Amino acid sequence: SGNAALQVLDRMYVSAEASEVVKSAILAAMGEVCEPGNTQFITRHFTERGDRLVANAIEALDRVGAIENTVLLDPFLSHPAPRVRANAMVALWRTGSLESVATLEDMLASADEAVLMAGLFALSQVQSALDWQEVKKRPMLLAAIQEQTSAGRVAPDHEAPAAEAAGPRVAELEATPDLTTALESALVRAMVA
To answer: What is the pLDDT of residues 12-25, one digit of tens each?
Structure first.
């Protein structure tokens, strides 16, 4: 059972004491076996002292992919550690929170190299999430994109092939502040800076 596995992993985490590498691996494993009702095994690690462990806990929660995680992740968009902010932005994006793009734009416009690098990492993760096959695996992101298209934001010449009738291809969405424009402008600003 997933709950029994989480309990074992939790005990292993406590016994790992000082090793961040081992704790990070345990958090990743928790993300693989956790179900939406058991996220407390992961979220209790949001208060860790090391930014790496907090970032890894966010990645683990991202693997669970439940909509209730958005409330838990929103505060991390303003975390002082760039890696934590980037992981929170990516996790929120994947749950359909298009508002998290503002954090990405700020990160990509930063003069601080660590913040910029974390922003570029987040951008690469968002870009891979824009692949239509990946979008279909993320129900909340798919719902957010479908909401955009139902509001008339699909390019007028869009004709979805029969195999993709369930929704539009992300690449064919019209540029909107919530989606493409913010990403492109942030990337251009980061490249010019």
So the answer is: 888 877 688 888 88
